[in-house]
Amino acid sequence: MTYSPLEPTSRTGAAAFLLVYCTLFLDNVLLTALVPILPEWSGVTAAPAVLRNGSTLSLAGEVGSEAAAAGAVLGARSAAQLACAPLAATLTTRVGPAPTLRLAVLLLLAAATWLSWCGSSVCAAGGVACLWCGAAGRVLQGSGGALGGVAGMALVSRAVSPSRQQQALGASLGAVALGVLVGYPLGGATAALWSSAAPFHLVAGALLANLGLQYAYLKKPEYDKVEQPAVDEPRSAAWRDCARGVWNECGAGAGAVFLSTAVMAALEPCLPLWLERRFGAQRWELGVVFLPDSVAYLAATSVAAALCGGRGLRAQRVALTGLCSVALGGVLVARASSLGALAIAQAGVGAGVGALDAALVPALLARADSLPHAAALLQAAASAAYAVGPVAAGAVWWVAGFGATLRALAVANLLYAALLYRHFHERPLPDQRGSEDGKDARGSGSELLPLSSPSP
User: Fold this and answer.
1) 128-159 helix and 165-193 helix, angle to the nearest 10 degrees
2) Strand ranges (E), 286-383
């Protein structure tokens, strides 16, 4: 399946890109705004001072059960996103990216509205009903996020000229990072100032405006155009080509994305509860505490993209360094004795994940003829991490403690870094077209990179 990116006018292309950027940004604001609110929703009542005074064993079961419950709520969104990833690729190719993106925003709007109602009504008293309500909202959001991520990347590839597609991809990663960066403090601050429903009211209003602007500006026929497979090619062939083989470039990179992202995912349900009991953190501090990894992720995506410069060898080194940074940061988080040390450790985790994403995303996209299917595979890897990570981390903390949870993930990342090094030695990543040596990344008989300009 092949597709030649169109060359729309700069005005309509910029409008389409900005709408996609805002959709990804708002999805991730909604993703992280709930995290600092969850301790209240899960009915946290134990005083942190009790644990600091030596009664850890008497409350360990309660803390672990709260972490497990919070992890289940957070994991619901990514479980739905993981399940909907193949559907997102199918809708984007058969219906078109613009209609799929509008459906995504509708689902995100429904999720924000539902969570705001939960925060103002159901969750006033906390308890099990509140957690079920939150999980239902996260399922809605996960469905919309899956459609928005895949359709958004496909739409950008059509709206932006081929010479700017690589920059557009880096900017889309920036939207994810910026949304995560804003969501944590927004959720903590607005919940402390007004109510736990306030952040979801704000996100719902922004999503409604985004939807109206999409109907106004995404009217070009090519934004609705579907991808037609070759006459003798079944529709499932593109997905099989993208996912074939665990140790091809696409599958190996997706595994690295999964393990590195799992560390950040594990911190979401565990870290706020751990901070309350170890440092007596206040509500606003629970939001601010996630700023170091978010800022580091945002900075690392920009630096790593510039450093790689389309060179395969550089991308391999950056990716391996990122995995090692994630592992080291995870160990240091568990051993942090002060908020300053914790911030440094979290920055190591965020920078590692950001560098890995910026280095390997082009390689993941380079191994498929269909951009929507490649984007779906990448999204599925991250979604699987956020689906499994919070639930598994909460359960392991319940049994073995917070430190054991992060040490286990650190060891997994180091082992995978060694396997990835061996894989790169056997099958190195190719240079993208237009890199310093001027080689065409297609080589002989390989695919055209989605981030490269097509041959005249």
Assistant:
1) 150
2) none
Q: For residue 339, give both structure tokens.
A: 């908020």
Task: Determine which helix (DSSP H) or strand (DSSP E) holds 371, and give its type and residue range.
Answer: helix 371-400
Query: Over the stretch 359-399, which tens digit does the pLDDT of each residue have?
Result: 887 666 655 566 777 788 788 888 888 878 777 777 777 78
Q: Model confidence over 157-210: pLDDT tens digits?
A: 788 776 666 666 667 777 888 888 888 788 888 888 888 888 999 999 999 999
Question: Using CA atoms, how far apart are residues 345 and 335, in angstroms rounded to an integer?
Answer: 9
- Alpha-helical (H) ranges within 160-289 are 165-193, 198-217, 221-224, 237-243, 249-278, 283-288
Asked if the model's pLDDT at residue 2 lies above 60, the reply is no
Write the pLDDT tens digit of every residue in 281-301: 666 666 577 788 888 988 998
Length of the chain in residues, anyone?
Answer: 456
Query: Please, are residues 183 and 28 in contact by the beta-carbon 8 Å criterion?
Result: yes
The Cα–Cα gap between 204 and 184 comes to 16
**Which amino acid, residue 378?**
L
Q: CA-to-CA distance for 120 and 136, rounded, in angstroms? A: 16
Q: How many CA atoms lie within 13 A of 395 on its CB side?
A: 7
Alpha carbons 56 and 205: distance in angstroms, whole number: 43
Q: What is the pLDDT of residue 435?
A: 47
d(CA 397, CA 394): 5
Q: How many other CB atoms are there within 10 angstroms of residue 201's CB atom?
A: 18
**Of 305, 282, 284, 301, residue with least CA distance to 293:** 301
Residue 331, classified by CB atoms within 10 Å of its CB into exposed (0-12), middle (13-18) or buried (19+), is middle
Q: Are 295 and 180 in contact (CB under 8 A)?
A: no
* Gap between the Cα atoms of 65 and 445, Å rounded: 54
Token couple for 374: 């490649």
Residues 6+ apart with CB under 8 A from 125: none
| C-alpha span between 234 and 17 (Å, rounded) | 31
Using alpha carbons, select from 234, 218, 227, 2 the residue that is nearest to residue 93. 227
How far is Cα 146 from Cα 444, in angstroms, rounded to an integer?
34
Contact 453, 433 (CB under 8 A): yes
Token pair recorded at residue 137: 């909202």
Q: How far apart are CA 309 and CA 370, in angstroms?
A: 23
Using the 8-state DSSP alphabet, how is residue 401 labeled? Answer: -
Question: Could you give the CA distance from residue 137 to residue 72 in angstroms, rounded to a whole number?
Answer: 12
Phi/psi of residue 340, nearest 5 degrees: -65, -45
Amino acid at the residue 251: G
